[in-house]
């Protein structure tokens, strides 16, 4: 084995995870500066060009010269899949490692994180099956499809609660004859990896999220939403449902007020943060740190250093 290949293989993947508003972006910058790393975005809403304020996307001027991969590669009309992200993320990881840099995955989209770091197989898709199920969802409602899913895949039925995921689970069953849950095996890293989770006081997180939403509104979230309408925001199946964007579309349509939309966004964001915590807490491999601890940076550096030493041993 060449020295360069050995060095590349000794570089682990770092994943900074946790709920929105917990400080993942800042910790990622600190780790990247210390270890000469590069960031890979795993926040599915930061894939979209122009969705900057409402997704709390770190402005280019605040990235301290650290490259951030897999941001701004979709228009708001477009969608991607977890499987496609898996390919892109692993290519980015390989590229970063090939240059002797440390890859640092950062984001709160749990399944996207797993897709990048775990041995995980994704079934294919069938547009005709998907279209038929989506039409049935629109006609009969989620309860009918969820009841069918509970008969063929009770594990997935217990995990998913929105129409898009119910449709996907039923599509996979029709396409493969296997329950969607069978494609989520035991947690097994593809290569040496350390996951660092950020958490803290629940009341403080609620205050952080409320303050963040108010700041987004002051920075021009409503204008950002309005500017994205001619770009196809209303036509995009995923982008229009992003937190803040769906609420402020109703303001623009005269169906809500800025105050109402702000409060609705705060509530929805808190609920989303709770779901994120539930997802990541289910993974026993995550090393949890308190965002408020004095030695946060040092503790995170120690975890990465330990993983690097084990990977190169």
From TrEMBL:
Keywords: ATP-binding, Magnesium, Nucleotide-binding, Transferase, tRNA processing. Its cofactor is Mg(2+). It comes from the Bacteria. The record marks 109, 130 as: Interaction with substrate tRNA. One of its GO terms (molecular function) is tRNA dimethylallyltransferase activity. ATP binds at residues 18-25. GO terms for biological process: tRNA modification. Substrate binds at residues 20-25. Monomer. Belongs to the IPP transferase family. HAMAP family: IPP_trans (MF_00185). This is tRNA dimethylallyltransferase. It comes from Arthrobacter psychrolactophilus.
């Amino acid at each position: 084995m060449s020295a360069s290949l050995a060095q590349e293989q000794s570089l682990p993947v770092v994943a900074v995870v946790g709920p929105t508003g917990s400080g993942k972006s800042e910790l990622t910058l600190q780790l990247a500066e210390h270890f000469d790393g590069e960031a890979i975005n795993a926040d599915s809403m930061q894939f979209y060009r122009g969705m900057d304020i409402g997704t709390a996307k770190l402005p280019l001027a605040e990235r301290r010269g650290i490259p951030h991969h897999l941001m701004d590669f979709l228009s708001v009309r477009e969608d991607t899949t977890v499987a496609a992200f898996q390919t892109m993320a692993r290519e980015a990881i390989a590229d970063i490692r090939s240059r002797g840099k440390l890859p640092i995955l950062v984001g709160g989209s749990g399944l996207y994180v797993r897709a990048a770091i775990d041995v995980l197989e994704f079934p294919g898709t069938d547009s005709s099956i998907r279209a038929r199920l989506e039409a049935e969802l629109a006609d009969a409602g989620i309860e009918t499809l969820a009841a069918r899913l509970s008969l063929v895949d009770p594990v997935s039925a217990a995990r998913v609660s929105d129409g898009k995921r119910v449709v996907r689970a039923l599509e996979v069953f029709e396409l493969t004859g296997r329950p969607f849950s069978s494609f989520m095996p035991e947690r097994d890293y593809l290569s040496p990896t350390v996951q660092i989770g950020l958490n803290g006081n629940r009341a403080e997180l609620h205050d952080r999220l409320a303050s963040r939403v108010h700041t987004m509104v002051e920075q021009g979230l409503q204008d950002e939403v309005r500017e994205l309408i001619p770009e196809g925001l209303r036509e995009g199946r995923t982008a229009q449902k992003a937190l803040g964007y769906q609420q402020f579309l109703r303001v623009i349509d005269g169906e809500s007020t800025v105050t109402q939309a702000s409060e609705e966004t705060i509530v929805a964001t808190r609920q989303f943060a709770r779901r994120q915590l539930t997802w990541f807490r289910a993974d026993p491999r995550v090393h949890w740190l308190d965002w408020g601890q004095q030695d946060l940076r040092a503790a995170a550096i120690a975890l990465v250093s330990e993983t690097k030493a084990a990977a190169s041993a």
